Structure formats: structure tokens, C-alpha cells
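Exercise 7. Given the components listed, write out the predicted structure of the assembled complex. Treat all entries as one system.
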Amino acid sequence: MCMKKVTVKDFREMKGGDHAISMLTAYDASMARLLDQAGVDALLVGDSLGMVVLGYDSTVPVTMEEMLHHAGAVRRGTERALVIGDMPFGSYQVSVEQAIANGTRFLKEAGCDCVKLEGGEEVCDAVRGLVRAGVPVMGHIGLTPQTAGQLGGFKVQGKDMEAARQLLADAKALEAAGAFGITLEAVPAPLATIITKEIAVPIIGIGAGAGCDGQVLVTNDMLGLFEKFTPKFVKQYCNLAPDIKQGVQAFIREVQDGIFPAEEHGFAVKEDFSDLLTPEKK
Ligand code: KIV
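Answer.
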């Protein structure tokens, strides 16, 4: 693996390259460091932060301040991967000016390389404005969690011809507006393959089959760290939650039984401090 930092230009040029693009979410510096050292191409500071880290029921309540706090941590833990900051609900819908003001904060304050935002044709003014202002943008269409309510819940998108045509039109509009890549979520694999062939920028699938230019997963899902629910499209590569609980139970037992800490975990000195004890405590 080449240790050179992945830029937006490199990412864009990975389309049609010799390997599919790998992308994972990250929310803090220590996990970002592990994923980066493992060689992932891109780290998305997703607004899934709200559900997997902050304990909200959806991504809707996530604020700019929360996103910037975690995006800065991921940036500090990352040397190679492209770092993408996810624009939270309400941070880019009001006006192009609002989108630029918030998008630039991801680059200036958190050190992200670029941002991602959800939506198709309806967000293209914001995408154009951001790109003109120097903020590279990744689009996100298909199942868009911030507006899942409008889509009838967390459901597969693009199931009939009309919906499929709209998704392709959205992808083309995002490309024309200057997006350097598009996340495509919960879309039938044959449709995702067609969109990938029709669009010149990388299409990163999540629940969109193997025909995309790359794949993204929520790290806490693929490592088995988030137990509340697991979407059908997730493959669990590790199951860390039971290991963590076992380790914590061992710690509790050893603390209760006086086994931890042992002598090797403490600091010995030559001084005899026993004179500090009051006589009745000796
Ligand atoms: O917020 C997120 O984690 C995402 C991924 C599901 C792509 O947008």
C-alpha cells in the first residue's frame, strides 16, 4: 500500500482503476488511526455518529458542532485516507450561502478534505455553490437517512422504472453540479451497476451490490460493535461486542476479588510511608 495521502483528485481517478475503493465511517481519532493503518482509502465522518455514538434514534438531531468535534478527532488520527465530513440535516438546505458557510467549516475547523451531503437534483445549487467556493462535494442518493421519513422509512429505493429513472437523473445532476463522487444507498444491484456505468465519477455503494466503484460500511456495524439493529446489507467481519463484554466482566470480577491491580501494575518507591498513618489506623 502506498502511504501517500489520498486526495480528492486521487479518489476521483480511482474510478476504473485496478482496485475497488474502500470507505468506512470513523468518529474518533483512535479508531480512525486503526482503519487508516489498515489501508482504507476513505474515512467518512458520517452523521450516523448520531445513532452509533451519540445515542439518538436517528441522524436528524445531529448538529454542526457535534460533527466538527468528531471530524477534527478523525482528522488528527488519519495520515493517509481521504477524510470526508458529512453535512448534518439542516446545515445545507436553507440557502446556498448557508451550505457554503457550513461546508467551509468542515475544511477550516476540522481539517476535512471534502464534505458529503444527501439529496439529488434538489441539492444541486448547494453542490455548485460549495464546489465554486473550493469545497469538494460527494453526493448521497438512494436511501437518504436524513429524510427517510419522506421515503417511507429505511427502505430499498429505485424499485420501479420511474424511481430508477429519477435516481439516474439525480446522479447525472450531481455529476454536472461538480460532485467528485456519489454514495448510493439501498438500491437494487442491477440499477446501481447501470448508474455506475453511466456516471464518470466514483459510485460508492452501500446495499447497492458489487457493480459499484467502491463500497462503504458503518464501521460499528461491520465490527459488530452496534447491537441495536444490523441492516441486511451489512457483512459483519468481527463480532467485538461479546469480546468487550467478556473483557469488562473479567475486569469487574478481578477488581471485586482483589486480583487487579497486581504488583506489576503499581509504582514502588524506596521510601517507607507507613509513618503517615495515624496510630489507630496502623
Ligand atoms: O452517515 C453515514 O454513516 C453514511 C453512510 C451510511 C454512507 O452516510
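Discussion: Residues 25, 44, 46-48, 86, 140, 183, 206, 216, 218 surround 3-methyl-2-oxobutanoic acid (CB under 6 Å). The mean pLDDT is 96.
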